[in-house]
Amino acid sequence: MSELKPRKDLLDIESLSLDEIEYVLENAVPFKQLFQRSVKKVPTLRGKTVLNLFYEPSTRTSSSFEVAANRMSADVTNFTISASSVVKGESLLDTIETLQAMRSDYIVIRHQAAGVPGIVAKHTRASVLNAGDGYHAHPTQALLDAMTFREVYPDFQGRKVVIVGDVLHSRVARSTSTLFHKLGIEVGVLGPGSLIPEGRHEFMQRFASWDEVFDWKPDAVYLLRVQMERQEGQFFPSVAEYHKMYGMHSTRVQRMRELGCYLMHPGPVNRGVEITDEAMGYEKSLISTQVENGIAVRMAVLHWLKPETQLD
Amino acid sequence: MARLFQNGKFWDSDRLEMVTGDILVNDEGMIEVVGVGLPVPDEVATTDCTGCLLIPGMFDMHVHGREPGDEHKETLASCAAAAIHGGVTGLVLMPDTSPPIDSGNLVKSLQDLISEVSPIPMLTSGCLTKGRKGERLAGFSGMASRGVVMLTDSGSSVPCPDLLRRCMEYAKDFDLLVTTSCDTAALTKAGAVNEGKISYQLGLPGIPAMSQEIAIDRNIRVAQHTGAKLHLQQVSTANAVKSVACAKEAGTPVTCEVSPYHLLLTEEDIVDYNTHFKMSPPLRLEADREALVAALIDGTIDVIASNHAPHTEFEKAADFGSAPFGVAGLETTVLAIYDGLIRPGVFGWDLLIERYSDRPREIVGLSSLKITEGEKAEFFVFDPEGETTLSRNYFKTKSPVTPFLDKTLSGAIRETVI
Q1: ipTM, 2 decimals?
Q2: Contacts of B322 in chain A (CB under 8 A)
């Protein structure tokens, strides 16, 4: 793997080579093993600074990056900017100038507008880690999903995953499906026509119903979070109808059990919408593993990226 | 001082072919003699045009001049300079300034400003609705008496079909052309790019093709019902072209335009969230582009109009979703069409002259330019073997935001004579 070209930023999945993906996923394994020890820290990034810049509230991803950076011994600054305090888009260049002056080595950024991490990356010497931009990309989520899937299926190639729900508004669906496809995992989608865009990648075959999905014999079902507040009445008639058509409940859990199928979800879960309380207890749920692997993968990414500030 | 342009090739509108010869322009800017091997009189500056084409000045009927109100983006002076630099010697200003041009008095003050600062004719248009708000009719008679050449809420469709109907009925009494943007706001919403593969991949909200197509169908229906003259701005899809062809076949007095961008680029050209490719309507598919080129050739599309819509580089430096729609067009249209369509042989100069000089002039009631004795000298000297690098310092516009920034195109405009 020594032939890997150093990379400054992680912005999306499309631009990653298979070698780079393998490098991160393989490195995440020893980091995860570290979590079993009483001292969970490595000194790799001692003296380095990580800026956690969140324009969208996200406790989970933000803390996952924070824990990952802490375990690498980096100094972390959390910066949450409410959308209301930002002049839409226009002040972005000014913000970048401020960031540049802070001389952080790594900037973790989440933003509601697609493409913002790329703009920041272009204008700073720090490594930029995209923690989710608009509907565009969430590359560390995809990497942690791949790590999780490969733990239960070391023979992952040719296996099948169905992504269920709002593909249209999901950066997770975009990044995770792309990464799975790159790894040779088949990807299907299930959801109402109003949330499954025609322009999606051709490899994402669409199923009309859970029956079709189960006939396909998926190795994992990946439920997406439903954004109830934005979508009820606009993209589907009601939460109750969504749950009936696409939700995960005990009957469907039983079908999964028969198939030996795993359950994944990027969190946070809307109980009673895309999944019932009961289904949350499914023995082959990987949801907690995903959270744990998120930290390991993010450590591996921090370890891998090379900020320009380190070239001085 | 009188000037003699020697040995250039130019379009002979009587013989309908390219001829080579000399053109003597007197010190009043009139073409005095056209001929071959003309003697050089005293006190005449000569310009060797060997290998160059002398092309009649273009006319752009869709220009956002930005003054008054947004002088940081463009002023009428910089707009005129950009036009001349791009071989454009006449244009129509859109009324979407701040304040919007929606009354006779505002037309008058704009015309006064134009006569002070612009060396080329800048014709005015007026709003269809008061303040371009799409709520009430603007003062048509006052604007008509000041000589606006069209009424348009350019940049904004009139969302209510009933109001559009009343606008057209009322405009017809003044024999005024009604020009519309073609967009259904309820479908476009916060869209930033064409809806489809690219909107999915970039994770940006999409603008479906039907947003334009429904608006075009609706506007054509209203025009047919009222009998008003309708001009459709910025046709961008294959289906939209079909609707226009169908309306023309039915004898509807409808004309339409296409931008150079939609003739040359597609959504696939949007790389790396480059906001210099963000425009309204958005860049579409290759099949749409091909249909637009075919329609331009067969006459379904009447004119090329650049939709010159400058925004500063700072404004365009926002993220793709937040950045404003629109790019500069006056200085690059001739070059880009030459580089992308004429030079590869898709069509000839005669078509560009027809669609970007003669026909738009005809639509707004002007006569076409001719390189003939007794006519005003209004042409540009084009070197087909030259090259133009469109770096920032090439531009005269205040906002050099264009998909062609930093590209090198074949062909060069040596000079525009006005």
Answers
A1: 0.92
A2: 88-90, 113
